[in-house]
Amino acid sequence: MSEVNKERRHLLGAGAAVAGLVVAPGVFLVTAGKGRADEEAGESGPQWGKVRWGMLVDTAKCSSGCTQCVSACDKENHLSGETLPTSSQWIRKMELTDRETGKNYSLPMMCQHCDNPPCVDVCPTGASFKRWDGIVSVDRHLCIGCRYCLMACPYKARSFVHHPVTDQNPDVPRGQGCAESCDFCKHRIDEGQIPACVEACGSTGGGALLFGDLNDPKSEISQRVATIATLQVRADLGTEPAVRYEGIL
Amino acid sequence: MSSVVFREIQSRGKGYYGILAALGVMILAGLAAAYNMETRGHIITGMNQQIVWGLPHVFAVFMIVAASGALNVASIGSVFGKSMYKPLAPLSGLLAIALLVGGLTVLMLDLGRPDRIVTVAMTHFNFTSIFALNVFLYTGFMTIVAVYLWTMMERRMNTYTKAAGVAAFIWRLLLTTGTGSIFGFLVARQLYDSALLAPTFIVMSFAYGLAIFILVLMAAYNWTGREVGDVIMMRLKKLLAIFIAAMLYFVAVYHVTNIYYAERRAVEAWLLLHGGIQTELFWLGQILAGSVLPLVILFHPKWGKSRAMIASACGLVIVGGLIQMYVTIIGGQAYPLVLFPGMKESSTFYDGVVHPYYPSSYEVFLGLGGVAIALFIVAVGIKVLRFLPESLEDHVVRAHHGEGH
Q: Is the CB of A156 inside 8 Å of chain B's CB atoms?
């Protein structure tokens, strides 16, 4: 064998060994865990679409400076409450000023639980998903941390967990390196309760938040949105949010 | 390809192994950076909730775009029948695979959970996601180009080269459409939401890929004492100039269209006039250094004939291309989302303000590590297999081309 060929074989052999080392761990790790029940993900389940949870925000009752909803969310979901550029914020208070008239508004902004959620469309693994009751959520066992949902959400509602996560609420699993957002406190809803922010706004805030089933014509929220003018944020995008705002048209 | 002799590079000197060692160190530094990001989290990077894709994406998307462009030289030979380019086709294919591997490595190691690449990303697919489609476009590209290379390098398979070349050419158009659409499909962000991004990325790939190809060709031949003649060099340089001009055209149409939409005037005014670092990078980096200067050099009667100047033009296209990616990816995120048109917005979550970005050294090393992986693959490839023609001197090329026209 010539000197060149020997050298070539040696290099090719080394290359094959490296490739093997790269692939082997993956082969042994193929034990994909599916973290959520089928009816939660599939659109064929018997419950699909029967309920659509939604929220109505009365901006006239939401005052600038009141952050009861934010504090309640942080406490319920064990978020740090910090507002660093890297901190997760599932709900935030936005202050708005009309550029022409100067009128001010204050309102909470969170996941709008869209009927056509861009975060679900762009998620490569299906980790971003819409539940049978319209709640948009992240299966943190399927999230690979690509952050495409953060890029796609028109409401800046998604956060990426940059910081190490400690002291978790067992009902609200979070994970460093995964995306997360408001899920209407689905763990509470499944127990017949309302989201923490809505409860806090009603007890210690301005009572600006109304939560209920948009698909039930008898619910208070359905009757309100059927009779008063409400706004869906960036309705032009066709995302059809389940959160509506009144008093800001 | 009968009249052109292909041969592995013979250099066994310190220079060759020195380059391999340097690239190896860069790769290790990149892997170390990725390990830190994986174990300590993205908190150690400059990325945050506002700039969610940072420098690693700039390098990764640049390399992925350039990968499909690097294949063009082969396509021109096999698909469009320009036989002068055929001797360059194997290197073109090798470079395409190498750049794609480098880019994808960076992209994957920048994930929040890279440990789930095999267990989740390769087993769960949501086909409304352009990312999920890209998994197939990227792996398909590597497979098709590998087959294409095989048909070129194995004499018995030569009859299939044209068919494989056509498949690879169509696939590379799909691939870059997919890459451009990662951004084009983001309807909520004013600087992304545009169907023009897909064809713009294709044209960018032509320019970046060819610039890298020319530099690698020059380096490989210079360092191993082989010759590239003027015939082939002048062809390649003219082609590069055409690609740069086309890129400028697409960039101009994109911005003029945006300016025509009243709702996008504010963001365009920010980027083009008063966006600070982004404005400077756009005009000085992307437009002046990345497009205008290379065009001047390539069309200049004297500079356009100098190998050193042509190499400089290629270098400028690459640097300008990286800056173009920076402006596209970081600039597109730096401008705040507009949730309530007509309102001034503010919040604790940085609504309504332009977002700064300070990349960390981890991101720099990860990005450069990807570049090193691509170059390492090329360096080893041309040493162990017959990717390079022994000579590209004018008489060889002319003989092959039938008196070069």
A: yes
Query: Is B346 within a domain?
Result: no
Is B249 contained in some domain?
Answer: no
pLDDT digits (tens, 9 = 90+) for B288-332: 999 999 999 999 999 999 999 999 999 999 999 999 999 999 999
CB contact under 8 A, A126 and B124: yes
State which residues form the domain around B138.
6-243+360-401
**Confidence class of residue A169 from pLDDT cuts 50, 70 and 90?**
very high
In chain B, how many domains are there?
Answer: 1
Residue B131 domain-assigned? yes
The beta-carbon neighbor of B343 closest among A96, A146, A160 is A96
Which chain B residues contact residue A109 at CB under 8 A?
339, 347, 349, 351
pLDDT tens per residue across all 405 residues of chain B: 446 778 777 766 778 899 999 999 999 999 999 999 999 999 999 999 999 999 999 999 999 999 999 999 899 888 888 887 888 889 999 999 999 999 999 999 999 999 998 888 888 899 999 999 999 999 999 999 999 999 998 889 889 999 999 999 999 999 999 999 999 999 999 999 999 999 999 999 999 999 999 998 898 888 778 788 888 899 999 999 999 999 999 999 999 999 999 999 999 999 999 999 999 999 999 999 999 999 999 999 999 999 999 999 999 999 999 999 999 999 999 999 999 999 999 999 999 999 999 999 999 999 999 999 999 999 999 888 888 877 777 777 776 665 433
Whether B330 maps to a domain, the answer reads no
Instruction: Calculate mean pLDDT across residues A177-203.
Output: 97
CB contact under 8 A, B344 and A99: yes
Nearest Cα of chain B lies from the Cα of A39 at a distance, in angstroms, of: 17
Whichever domain contains B75, its CATH number is 1.20.1630
Q: Does A166 touch chain B (CB under 8 A)?
A: no
B112, B132, B350 member nearest A85 (Cβ): B350
- Chain B environment of A114 (Cβ under 8 Å): none
To the nearest whole angstrom, how far is the Cα of B215 from the nearest Cα of chain A? 25
Q: Find the CB nearest B113 among A29, A152, A177.
A: A177
Q: Which helix (H) or strand (E) holds A81?
A: none
Strand-pairing partners, residue A53, are A213
Closest CB to B41: pick one of A95, A156, A163: A163
B229 contacts B397 by C-beta, under 8 angstroms: yes
Window 130-149 of A, Cβ < 8 Å to B:
141-148
Asked if A6 reaches chain B (Cβ–Cβ under 8 Å), the answer is no
Q: What is the token pair recorded at A49?
A: 């679409």
Per CATH, which fold does A44-246 belong to? Alpha-Beta Plaits (3.30.70)
Mean pLDDT of A53-74: 97
Cross-chain residue pair A85–B188, CB shorter than 8 Å: no
CA–CA min distance A30, chain B (Å): 5
Q: Is A52 within 8 Å of A133 (Cβ atoms)?
A: yes
Asked if A147 and B186 come within 8 Å (Cβ–Cβ), the reply is no
- From the list B357, B324, B377, the residue with the least C-alpha distance to B104 is B377
Query: Cβ of B342 and A98 within 8 Å?
Result: yes
